Structure formats: C-alpha cells, structure tokens
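ugh ok fine here u go
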Amino acid sequence: MRKPLIAGNWKLNKNITESESLARALVTDLADITETDIIIAPIFTALNRVAAIVDGSSIQLAAQNCYPQETGAFTGELSPTMLKDAGCGAIIIGHSERRQLMGETNEFINLKVHATLNSEMQVILCVGETLEERENEEMLEILTAQIKGGLVNVPAEKMQNLVVAYEPVWAIGTGKTASNEQAQEAHSFIRGLIQGLYSPETAEACRILYGGSVKPDNVDGLMAQADIDGALVGGASLKVEDFCRIVKFEKAGH
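structure:
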C-alpha cells in the first residue's frame, strides 16, 4: 500500500512571522497523524525558521523550487544542498506556474530532478495540461512529454524518492476541479507511463498526487480513487482548518 501524502504549497504567501504562526498551528493540530505523510512548502525566506518549528513533528519541510547547480555565478538562485541545509527534505519541481510564467522546459526541469535526487532529497515532480491542451485532446501527449522528459536518465532505484503531482493547469486557483473520474483517468495514465519506463513494481510503488483546487469538500472523493495517493494543496493550505481537514481526509474506499 502506498502511504498517502498531503503537501501544502504556500506559493508567494505569508511572511516569516505569518509562516511561523501557521507552522506552529499545524504542528499542534496534526501532532497525532502517523498514517499520512505531511509536507509544507513556505517561501524561501521563512524556510529556516519554519524548519525549527516542524523539527521532530509529523510535518516535513519542502522548498518550492531550486536551481540545478551546486554553487557558482547564478545570482538569485538556490541549490538543493543549500535548501537541505536550511532544513528541507523535499523540493517541488516543475510546478505549472514555473512552466507557464518562468518558461521552464522539460529539459531544465530534468536537471533539477537530478540535482535534487543527487542531494538525497525527495522530488515532487509536477505535470499537467492547460485548458487549451485538454480541449485540443492533447492531454495524454503533454503528460507523456512531461513525464518522459522529467525522468530522463533517472534510475529505477531513485524513483523511491520521487513523487509525481498531476495538476491540470485549468483547475489551479480557478475553483474548478477535475472530476474524480477525470483525475483518476490522468493518474492511471501516468502510472502506466511510469510502468512503461521502469517496471510494474516501480509504478505500483510511486505516489501520484492530485493538485488543482483541492478543498475540504472535494478531497474525500479524490482520495477514494485507486490511483490518487494524496494532494498538492495550494490556497487551502494557507488556512489551518482547511489544510487539517484535507490531511484528515475520510478514507472510505481508499
């Protein structure tokens, strides 16, 4: 059985003080959670302070991005080892906003995947299609390119440190959510791609999260799907009550 994982991507929200406050509340309210892995990803400037708060708790810390070089003349960038030094155990890579707004390519994202895995940190690799791509029936083609491109030369033994997050771009921050059936279809397809690249065992062990307007009122239905192993939560991860309810999803049928 794949252990569920709920990750909160705080994006460009919460200053250091606010991040500390949110982290403290989550540590308290989620202290007894053992059956689900929990990750939060604050802004860079709050990472080290939040790391001290979640240390020894049920919550792991992630960064929202990285640069695929250890050191050097890369103004404004942070390497995986520097983020690890700040207290992170995971990095979100290839988020749709990085792809859409920052023009990140599958090739560049693949470099980040390798740099993060080589630093012995967990990768949360984001993939997903835009509304236009879905309407043009290019979803499967896009997912294939993003999965295959992101995993170039990643060996099977390192896949245990990699989580895939499927986030239909048209459902992020829009209030729209893929139906349970649409999400399951995409997750099943992604698992099939991983099986084709590796093996049935690797595919079966890989956790695939759903991201895209996950809320307390839709998480139970999503988590009941056979190939949905957790959620990458945006807006709802900024509210203690909402994020806690998502972490404590009702497990009926899962």
